[in-house]
Amino acid sequence: MTRLTTLVDSEAVSGRAAVEIARRVDSARRERGVAHLALSGGRTPGRTYKLLASELDSWDRVEVWFADERCVGPQDEQSNFRLAHETLLGPAGIPSDRVHRMEGELGPEEGARRYARALAERVSFRDGDLPVLDAIVLGIGPDGHVASLFPGAPTLDAGERALCLPVHDSPKPPPERITLSLAVLRAARRCLLLATGAEKADAVAAMLGQPSRHVPASLLRRGRLSVIVDDAVAPAPPRAEPDQPNDPGTNPQAS
Ligand code: 6PG
């Protein structure tokens, strides 16, 4: 069952997400000796990463991956790696040999090929051929995309053996990207999806509805999904049934 948490504002979402991520990292280390954590980019998770940096006393035995990356250099202001480095990797002192950057500067094909190899070599826990990451932090686009898996895109049909995919036509700039496959997202022990702001309300509602290729987030594995949203996103509570017209108490026209 998807776990949906609604909090008053984006700051509360960031704080809760940081606590939840830290808890999952810690339990993965205790249970399996290592934690594999993948991060998304965009505007939503930066504050979470800043808070997360101080949620754990030690970042030993944590391997950091990425859910997607733009095909830019690591110092580019559009780089998801740069966002993570400035907010989490640097402040937490996570050494570069435990940070697995998607090499966007190599372009979609070569970058995706090398990342798939790194995942296969470095993540020892498997679901069939799929590497099992412990926690993947996701945002969601207003169109329901997650990572760089966009509505109706052929990447959604890449199959169970695809680990990492090239993207050439992202509707969200820049057009060239690298993304984890849907299969890898679905194999993860937990996906934590963060959404704040009214512009995400329809996408979150669609995600919780019928699975559809038109809403990639709806294809995540529901039983391994935590959704943390603010009030602006929260699905509206069911409307109270209006009083019957002959009830003068609430319908002045009827009196
Ligand atoms: C990216 C992200 C992307 C993001 C959503 C939401 O590289 O752009 O990984 O998937 O999570 O587009 O973006 P915002 O958090 O900026 O709304």
What are the defining features of this structure?
binds 6-phosphogluconic acid, alpha/beta, disordered C terminus, three-stranded antiparallel sheet, 11 strands, single chain, Rossmann fold
What does this structure look like?
It is a single chain. The protein has a single domain (3-230), classed as 3-Layer(aba) Sandwich (Rossmann fold), CATH 3.40.50. 28% of the residues lie in helices and 18% in strands. The protein is built from six helices and eleven strands. It has a six-stranded parallel β-sheet with strand order 1-11-10-7-2-3. A three-stranded antiparallel β-sheet has the order 4-9-8. A two-stranded antiparallel ribbon has the order 5-6. Helix 6 (201-207) links the parallel strand 10 and strand 11 (225-230). Helix 1 (10-32) packs across helix 2 and helix 2 (46-53) runs parallel beside helix 3. The chain is globular and about 70 Å long. Bound molecules: 6-phosphogluconic acid. 6-phosphogluconic acid binds at residues 40-44, 67-68, 80, 139-141, 145-147, 172.
